[in-house]
Amino acid sequence: MSDLITIVDGGGHVVTAFGSRTSANSRQVDPQQLGEAFIQGLHAVLTKRRDSFEHVDADRPPEKCARYRVLPLGADPDGPVIGAVIVRHPLQDVILANRRVSDTLHQVADVVHDLRTELNAVIGFADMMRQESWGKLGDDHYRTYAEHIHLSGNHLLQQINQLLDLSRAEYLGPNLQEQDVDLAALLNQCCQSMDILAQRSGLAVSVHPQEAPTVRADFRLIRRVVLNLLSNATPTGGRIAATTGLDHLGRPFLSVRDNGIGIRADHLDKVMQPFAQIDSLQSRRHVDNGSGLGLPLSKRLMELQGGSLVLESAPDQGTTVTAWLPRQRMVAVAQPSG
Question: Quick check: pTM over 0.85?
Answer without folding.
Answer: no
